[in-house]
């Protein structure tokens, strides 16, 4: 199950979405610094990566309160990632990078509780992706 405490995600989505480019930049910088080999999963079109990242943020915020939706998103993403050779440990790197990107970009705009909720949902989602990749 992916469900997490989602109260406040929808409320803060416009703020998070407004910072999507900065969050994406921080995320990818942290991923590539921690695990340079993961750059192979993102070979082209940095702008497209940011668009996909924004779509992912939206899907998580809008689907987090419905486990069936989140499971479907996880299954689809895991299937795509499997063809690229993504392994469970890559999801751990991504999750840590995403948490750090959220903290760096939004700590002064979200309450500690709102930030915790976002990170909790992404952590549960990434745990599920790692399970599917195993």
From TrEMBL:
A Pfam family assignment: Globin
UniProt domain Globin: residue ranges: 26-127
MF GO annotations: FAD binding; heme binding; nitric oxide dioxygenase NAD(P)H activity; oxygen binding; oxygen carrier activity
Record flagged with keyword Nuclease: no
Gene3D superfamilies: Globins
GO biological process, one term: cellular response to nitrosative stress
Record keywords: Heme, Iron, Metal-binding, Oxygen transport, Transport
UniProt family annotation: Belongs to the globin family.
Protein name per UniProt: Globin domain-containing protein
């Amino acid at each position: 199950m992916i469900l997490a405490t989602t109260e406040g995600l929808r409320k803060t989505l416009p703020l998070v979405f407004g910072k999507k480019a900065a969050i994406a930049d921080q995320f990818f910088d942290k991923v590539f610094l921690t695990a340079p080999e993961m750059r192979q999963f993102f070979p082209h079109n940095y702008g497209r990566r940011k668009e996909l990242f924004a779509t992912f943020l939206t899907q998580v915020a809008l689907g987090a309160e419905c486990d069936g939706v989140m499971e479907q998103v996880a299954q689809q993403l895991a299937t795509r990632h499997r063809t690229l050779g993504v392994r469970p440990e890559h999801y751990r790197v991504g999750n840590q990078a995403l948490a750090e990107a959220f903290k760096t970009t939004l700590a002064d705009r979200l309450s500690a509780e709102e930030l915790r909720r976002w990170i909790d949902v992404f952590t549960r989602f990434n745990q599920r992706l790692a399970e599917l990749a195993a």
